[in-house]
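Worked example 2:
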Amino acid sequence: MLRGKPGRIFRPRIGYRQLIVTFSLALATWFVIASGNQYEFDEFIPVRSRGLAEQGKILVSDEMPQVKTRIRGRGWSLWQEYFFHRAWYDLQVPTGGGQSVTVELQPEQVVIPAATNLVPVAVLEPRRLDVRFDNIATATLAITPRLELNLMPGYRQVGKPVLFPAQVELTAPASILDTLTTVYTIPLRRDDVSSPLELTALLDIPFNHLQPRTEQVSIRLEVEPLLELSFPNLTVQVINLPQSVRVLADPPVLTVLLAGATSQIRTVTADQLSVTVDFSLWRPEAPRLVPQVNHPEVAELINTTPQLVKLRLIVE
């Protein structure tokens, strides 16, 4: 402590820069010393299996746990492993005895990049794994789109959605692949549609072990304005008529109004239509029946004129 004038005390001042430099030098010195020493630390590492694929097998166990492993090495190498996690456990599975096996985990199977000079000391937990595996199989399945489409009034969908690709090749455990008949897309919804759609949808993969050749599909859907067409003078036919009964339909002809997508409804002709009345539904107290119109699937029935047909029995 320095004293000047009586009663006044002088204290040495240390600037912030000097403090930062001093602290940085101390930290660097500690880091250099620590990097050269040997330490052990515990790390959770992933489990992989390279040998199964070479034998035409694939793991079907539940998600593999991380293996807690003790690793020894010099400080700098340990720092690298701590931050980048490059070690993993190479699971060696003997497949000669069946479709499941219990494997004892050994530190010799821990794979660490050689340049780090780290050494696995022990596998701490779990000490063993119950492993299930299956044969690898490949199949090509059709893709089914899940698309909820809400059209604007006055528009209709033309045909079915066109997919590209329409099929997908899957590689998976045989036991899982045998349960599949198709692969769906993720659900999509479009509202107020009034024009053709071109969409891209991801495949909905139901199992983690499925490996699709592609993960998405293009979907094209044609949408056209609604068109109504009238077909007059269609003959009414009476069906399910007993042999001893004669019946006249009143009126004998009627007009059918159909609607559909423009390009499709124009392909419909009168020869493709038929109008029938079922006599088995006739009752004396209710002689008027609703006619049934058979028409192509591309069209929908709007109405008939008249809407009811009266059956008149002819007594001979």
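The mean pLDDT is 83. Helices lie at 16-36, 51-54, 75-84, 174-177, 262-265.
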